[in-house]
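Predict the assembly for these two chains.
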Amino acid sequence: MESTAANDLAIEFRDVSYTLPTGQLVLSGLNLEVRRGQTLVLLGRSGSGKTTALKLVNRLLSPTGGEVRVNGLATGDVIRLRRSIGYVIQEVGLFPHFTVERNIALVPTIEGWPEERIRTRVRELLQIVGLEPSMASRYPRQLSGGQRQRVGVARALAADPPILLMDEPFAALDPLTRNELQQEFVALQQQLSKTVVFVTHDLREALRLASRIALMEAGRLVTVLPPQGFLRSDDPWASAYVRAFGVGPASAASRNEVRNEVRNEDRNPS
Amino acid sequence: MNFFHFIIENRGQVLELTLEHLWLVGVSTLLAVVVGIPLGIMIARWPRWNKPVLAGANIIQTIPSLALFGFLLPVPWLGERVDRLAILALTLYALLPVIRNTYTGIRGVDPAVVEAGRGMGLTDGQLLFWVELPLALSVILSGVRIAVVISVGLATIAAAIGAGGLGEFIFRGLAMVNNQVILAGAVPAAILALLADLSLGWLELRLRPQ
């Protein structure tokens, strides 16, 4: 058992369930904690409830049972809460009639930051996510998919929220761009240490980004493991994933770097 | 005496009736926008109002205009001044395209954009005025455009109850069995409709996102 001080927990799911108005159970009995500065990856296939779990954190959805605590609180002003949580989705959802600059500046603007501070912050963010300053005046339609998602990440980081929710942010990108953005995410996370909840169905992505992986299936949490532990797990669902992605001990030795990376990490700490 | 002759000889009256016509169409369109856009927003946000509101607007459309003018004539405040009555009737007809296009426009906004906005902590009002309405604007405007073009035609019927407008010439010409007089009403009305259509179409194109 890990003993963690209560204020070390950024997000807590306490016996959370979510039922649709139609009576369909999407989530049941979810108990999960995310410590500050940790990247928790929710891994699971479509319909496993991972996106629902994510939306319960910024209360785009409200649990029908149990409670979700953010910084120890399960209630409070929804609008304030959302502005303190960055939100990145697969479709990005940039405002098409806003320039890149105004998109990134959205939360600072509604929070009433002075103009000069906003402008400085936008420049800083463009640099953080690897975009040229000249991009600021472009419109989303003038950007590539990868650039759009970089802007999406910059927008989420704008008001420096302590928590970041990411719903398959890289899933729609081509493999090269995805790889690039994953690498940058890892670098960025080392620098910023946000509390991140990251939804994906891609085990490789999960292994690469996660501090811990929460595997979900049919609305239930199957197991929560660190990446190394996930590969060695004898849980049937976890090993099914490992086999499907060919990243486990059973796969050909030279096939993937993830495994080697993980092995190296295994060796080091002990 | 040909048609152009008639127009030139009666230019004062042609101008007067055209202005009356514009007044009827302009005021009724304005009212339809003021009432219809909020209704469209309402049914986009609370979809259970969608059916009754659209059904109501649809039913109004099915009432023949001449009959609607007749029905409204005995209504106390309205019947006193026929132009009020004509404006109300035209407003009712213009409502459907305005309501429906507002609804369609708002529902047509990319759900990802709305979700992102909501997720970042925009209030309902900010979402409406910063995101949904600007992005739906060209669709809403195309509804207004349809409403205006319909109104220009319908407003000619208003002359049947004495509310003026270019319909005066049309009804007079019918009574006199004189095509020139009918055309003196019909041609300016058609030109008005075309001009309104073109100018609003141009505006719609300018406001279209992307």
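Chain A touches chain B at residues 58, 60, 78-83, 85, 87, 89, 91-97, 106-107, 110, 141, 152, 155-156, 165 (CB under 8 Å). Residues 250-257, 266-270 of chain A have pLDDT under 50 and may be disordered.
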